[in-house]
Design brief:
The protein is of the alpha+beta class and about 210 residues long. It has helices at about 1-5, 25-40, 110-120, 135-150, 170-175; strands at about 15, 40-45, 55-60, 70-75, 85-90, 100-105, 155-160, 175-180, 185-190, 195-200. The chain contains five helices and ten strands, in the order αβαβββββααβαβββ. Helix 3 (about 110-120) crosses helix 4 (about 135-150). The longest helix has 19 residues, at about 135-150. The chain is rod-shaped and about 95 Å long.
C-alpha cells in the first residue's frame, strides 16, 4: 500500500493504530521503521499512546513536507479509554475563493402581471392562424426576448466560487454515511446518497 501512496504528488498524511510497538526492539516494528525510512516518511509520535505503554498510534508524513507540516503534537490521557488521544497542528491554509463574473436575469421579484400585459399588447396572443410556422416561432421568440429584456434585463454580477475540497469527489458522494444511534435500542443506520433513503439494521439486542 505504501509503495502506491508515496508516489502520489499530493501532500501525504497517514494516521492510525498500526499495532506495532514502535518504541521497543520488536522485530516487526523495526522492519516497519525501515520501511518508513525507505519511503522517506517521518513518524511524529514519540511518547506512548497506550495506557500501559508503547507507541501504537502513529502520525506519518513526508520528511520534506512543507505545505502539510505537523507541529505541536501532544498525547492526551483519556479517562474513558485505555488509548490516548493525539492532537497536533497542521499549517493548512484555506485557499482563496475564486471570484468570477456571470450574466443573469434577476427573477426573484419578477412582475408576472406586467409580463402578461406586455405580451398581450405586443400581439403574441392574437389570431395568427394564417401565418407560417417559421414566422410564428420567430415572433414568439422575439416578443418574449424583448419583454424579458425590459422587465428583467441581463446584467453582469460577480459571484464567489466555493469548490468542494479536492478529496471530495463522486466516489465520496456515493459512499454511505454510517452512524450509531443510542436510545432504547442500539441501531446502525446507513444513509445512502443521493436518493436520500434510509436503511436501518438492528445489530445489537435491545437494552
Amino acid at each position: 500500500m505504501l509503495e502506491e501512496v508515496v508516489v502520489c504528488p499530493e501532500e501525504l498524511l497517514i494516521i492510525g493504530d498500526f499495532n506495532f510497538h514502535m518504541d521497543t526492539a520488536d522485530r516487526y516494528a523495526a522492519l516497519f521503521g525501515s520501511l518508513l525510512e525507505l519511503f522517506n516518511l517521518k513518524q511524529h509520535v514519540t511518547v506512548p499512546t497506550y495506557r500501559s505503554g508503547n507507541i501504537l498510534y502513529l502520525v506519518l508524513s513526508r520528511k520534506d513536507a512543507e505545505a502539510l507540516k505537523v507541529d505541536e503534537l501532544v498525547v492526551m490521557e483519556q479517562l474513558s479509554s485505555d488509548h490516548k488521544a493525539i492532537c497536533f497542528q497542521l499549517n493548512l491554509q484555506k485557499p482563496l475563493n475564486e471570484r468570477k463574473s456571470v450574466f443573469s436575469r434577476r427573477l426573484r421579484n419578477f412582475d408576472f402581471g406586467a409580463f402578461n400585459k406586455m405580451i398581450v399588447s405586443l400581439g403574441l396572443l392574437a389570431d395568427v392562424s394564417d401565418l407560417p410556422l417559421e414566422l410564428l416561432v420567430d415572433r414568439y421568440d422575439n416578443v418574449l426576448h424583448d419583454t424579458m429584456d425590459i422587465l428583467a434585463p441581463v446584467k453582469p454580477r460577480t459571484i464567489v466560487s466555493r469548490p468542494n475540497a479536492p478529496w471530495y469527489n463522486d466516489k465520496c458522494w456515493m459512499i454511505p454515511t454510517c452512524w450509531l444511534h443510542v436510545g432504547q435500542c442500539n441501531m446502525l443506520k446507513i444513509r445512502r446518497w443521493p436518493n436520500d433513503t434510509k436503511h436501518t439494521f438492528n445489530i445489537f439486542d435491545q437494552t
